[in-house]
Write a structure and sequence with these properties.
This protein has helices at 16-29, 52-58, 86-93, 116-133, 188-198, 201-207, 223-230, 245-248, 280-292, 310-325, and strands at 6-10, 35-38, 44-48, 69-78, 101-105, 146-153, 156-162, 213-217, 234-238, 253-256, 269-274, 296-304, 329-334, 342-349. It is of the alpha/beta class. The strands form two sheets. It has a seven-stranded mixed beta sheet. The chain has a seven-stranded mixed beta sheet with strand order 10-9-8-11-12-14-13, with helices on both faces. The active site is at 304 (proton acceptor).
């Protein structure tokens, strides 16, 4: 068993260097010494730090961009005997308090996905053993930390803890959204996930009310417009390309054949959303103009990232957007599960 402490965070496979750079920089800015352990395509990053609890509090999950999940690392167990994984795990938990729930999982990577069956079966065996030893409550209790057992190999796992109020509420940090048959495109899942991940419960209730107005820039074939109409918003869909007929048939959509980079609304709108394929800095500047001119109150937009220096480009674009918007904004950004080489940004008056 290793006494490694710090944070364990999941990410999209291939984005481990970006997450490592983000954790390293954010930890340093918060005054914590440590270093990242990352290997490309592992789907996770370990940030080693002796002050794990304090660092965990200093880096809220909602503020991290490339982390699908953030966990506080309790121990790392290597070379476990497959015939008895439970005994060393219980020994590692000794003196560590009680937990209100148990998740046994694995990173979302090609190498770790085959461990899904092991995670399920081991969870079934571990749960009663934890309860018998007094480490796990008889019924789920969200007031207590959640215990995570994370397999990266059959004989190599991490023991972690998470605060339910400061971590992703979905196993592997992935919201399981279903693409409905009438969705015009798979991109609809991006906006659905953005509303779920980047807005809190109160914001979803207050900011997505029937009758609100919105613009969808670069709307064709209508995936994001369709999501907005499902919230009963009135949408101006701006794109020279066609929209699916059933999206127009909602009666909530006006389709304008125009360039989303040059069109401006005749009056202020509640929402603007944008998923146009364009250089990220150009998008950031255009989105900032919408807020600077008072054309919208809230926005969700995507920034397509370059192949290299993606963390640097992310910082630059978000700083550029915040500066040129010229007004106080609350800005949240994340690489969503349904994103690829991009991040999604939510902005609202701060």
């Amino acid at each position: 068993m290793s006494s490694t402490t710090g944070l364990l965070a999941y990410c999209r496979q291939g984005f481990e260097p970006e997450l490592a750079a983000e954790l390293t920089e954010r930890a340093a800015l918060a005054g914590f010494a440590g270093y990242a352990r990352a290997q490309r395509n592992d789907g996770h990053v370990v940030f080693v730090c002796e002050e794990a609890q304090a660092l965990d509090r200093a880096l809220p999950w909602r503020e991290l961009i490339f982390a699908r999940q953030k966990l506080r690392l309790l121990a790392e167990l290597r070379g476990i005997d497959p015939k008895d994984r439970i005994t060393p795990l219980l020994a590692a938990l000794a003196g560590g308090g009680r937990y209100g729930d148990l998740w046994v999982e694995h990173p979302d990577s090609d190498s770790a996905k085959p461990l899904a069956g092991l995670a399920r079966s081991f969870g079934n065996a571990l749960r009663p053993a934890l309860r018998k030893a007094g480490f796990l409550t008889e019924k789920d209790d969200a007031r207590l930390p959640r215990l995570h057992v994370v397999f990266v190999q059959g004989d190599h796992l991490f023991l972690c803890a998470a605060d339910a109020r400061d971590s992703a509420p979905w196993p592997l940090g992935i919201p399981r959204l279903k693409l409905l048959p009438d969705a015009p495109s798979r991109s609809a899942l991006k906006l659905e996930e953005a509303f779920l991940s980047l807005l809190d419960d109160a914001q979803r209730e207050a900011l997505l009310k029937p009758g609100m107005t919105a613009a969808d820039l670069g709307a064709a074939p209508g995936g994001w417009t369709w999501v907005l109409t499902r919230h009963h918003l009135r949408v101006t869909s701006v794109d020279n390309g066609p929209l699916r007929e059933h999206v127009l048939a909602t009666g909530l959509v006006e389709h304008l054949r125009a360039d989303g980079f040059h069109w401006k609304p005749p009056q202020p709108l509640d929402w603007m959303v944008c998923d146009m394929v364009e250089q990220p800095r150009r998008v950031a500047e255009r989105m900032a103009q919408w807020f600077r001119e008072g054309w919208c109150r809230h926005a969700v937009f995507n920034l397509k990232l370059p192949m290299k220096k993606r963390w640097d480009e992310t910082k630059l674009c978000l700083e550029l957007f915040a500066e040129q918007a010229d007004r106080p904004l609350e800005i949240r950004a994340r690489q969503l599960y349904h994103d690829r080489e991009e991040i999604t940004v939510f902005a609202t008056p701060g």
